[in-house]
Write a structure and sequence with these properties.
Number of domains: 2
CATH superfamily of the largest domain: Fido-like domain
Helix content: 55-70%
CATH topology of the largest domain: Fic-like fold
Distance between the termini: 73 Å
Structural class: mainly alpha
Order of helices and strands: HHHHHEEEEHHHHHHHHHEE
Shape: elongated
Radius of gyration: 25 Å
CATH architecture of the largest domain: Orthogonal Bundle
């Protein structure tokens, strides 16, 4: 009796990942342009701001990649671990890092900046960093070695179990991974296409007992950094994926399952993946825009004799964004923020308006007058 072929690794054309070039041309051009824009925007910052931006992007990547898999890390610990590696002024007296978060930073830096060929030994090293004590969710797992059992991706709702994917038999893993590593190290595919194929290929092989998603994202970082010749990667891919976590799992599942992917075509996955990279870059561009606006704002503000209350309010507005103050900044909100009287708040606000640092929100007046940061 012929076995029904349900998973992509059972298809006759596997491990060839077919896609349509014409459907990808637009998004590939867009992400390429934005990559260039990001590099240009970064070059316009001073060294201190560049390093600060790199640190923030690294912290977000580590936190969000773990959170996608349900592991919640301490932001303070991750921040300390990142700064120990990237910030020469790091204060070791207030170090809150852990051995685990130090390891995750090592993994991120190795995947992003070490352009040596990807090897089995290197992947095993990354895996040992993710599971330093050999356990996942309280269960003993094989660490720094490929799984030695069958693997299925399942979910449970009440008494109902749903099988989302069944990985290749463990007896095939050595052959599967040899082909995969040959592709990563030798393929001349477009870097964005290559990173998307490597991502779905690795999680489809599912070579480890756990941690496959996190290592797959590290491989994407590795490919993009190496193939694009980036000294640093100033965006967080995992942050963008987490924002569309449902899209991530839906697109992945429908690409891996031959019931949905009858044509054995991975264009939709590559489009989704490239859009996610583009979203991550656009988010960084927006952050740089905010940094640049803040710099210009404070260059202007330094010309005026601001009191401590005014400085505190301006800092809060710039840090949180005026959109977080529903309806804009009012006199009452100002008074509450700095614990002062309404009369003093009015005088402070009048001064800030006269200096051109805040402005009245269009359409607000009288008792409902609201103010916003004046950005040139």
């Amino acid at each position: 009796m012929e076995t029904i072929k349900k998973w992509i690794w059972q298809h006759d054309e596997y491990p060839k990942f077919n896609y349509g070039n014409s459907a990808l041309s637009s998004i590939l051009s867009k992400v390429s342009r934005n990559t260039g824009r990001l590099e240009g925007a970064i070059s316009g910052l001073n060294d201190k701001k560049i390093n600060s931006f790199l640190i923030d992007a690294s912290i977000d990547e580590i936190l969000q990649s773990s959170e996608i898999e349900g592991e919640i890390l301490s932001r303070d610990s991750v921040r300390s671990s990142v700064r120990k590696k990237l910030d020469e002024s790091f204060d070791y007296v207030n170090d809150s890092s852990t051995h685990h978060t130090d390891g995750l930073v090592t993994l991120l830096l190795d995947s992003s900046y070490n352009h040596e060929p990807l090897t089995e030994e290197r992947l095993h090293g990354w895996h040992s960093i993710l599971f330093p004590i050999g356990y996942s969710d309280g269960y003993k797992i094989d660490v720094a070695t490929y799984r030695s059992d069958e693997m299925s991706v399942v979910s449970n709702k009440g008494y109902r179990e749903t099988v989302h994917y069944v990985a290749p038999p463990y007896e095939q893993l050595r052959q599967e991974m040899n082909s995969f590593l040959e592709y990563v190290n030798s393929s001349k595919d477009d870097p964005y296409i290559k990173s998307a194929i490597a991502h779905i290929w690795f999680v489809s092989i599912h070579p480890y007992d756990d941690g496959n998603g996190r290592i797959a994202r590290a491989i994407v970082n590795y490919i993009l950094s190496k193939e694009l010749g980036l000294d640093h990667k100033y965006y967080s891919l995992s942050t963008a994926i987490r924002k569309d976590k449902k899209g991530y799992y839906d697109t992945l599942e429908k690409s891996q399952n031959l019931f949905y992917n009858r044509e054995f075509d991975f264009t939709k996955w590559i489009v989704w993946h490239t859009n996610i990279i583009n979203s991550a870059i656009e988010n960084s561009l927006e952050q740089i825009k905010i940094i640049t606006q803040k710099t210009k704002f404070w260059d202007k503000a330094r010309e005026y004799p601001l009191n401590k209350r005014q400085l505190k309010v301006l800092n809060k507005l710039l840090d949180k964004g005026i959109e977080n103050f529903e309806g804009g900044l009012s006199t009452k909100k100002y008074a509450n923020m700095v614990s002062t009287s309404i009369a003093t708040a009015k005088r402070d606000i009048t001064g800030l308006v006269d200096y051109g640092l805040i402005e009245q929100v269009e359409g607000s007046a009288g008792r409902n007058v609201r103010y916003a940061i004046a950005i040139d």
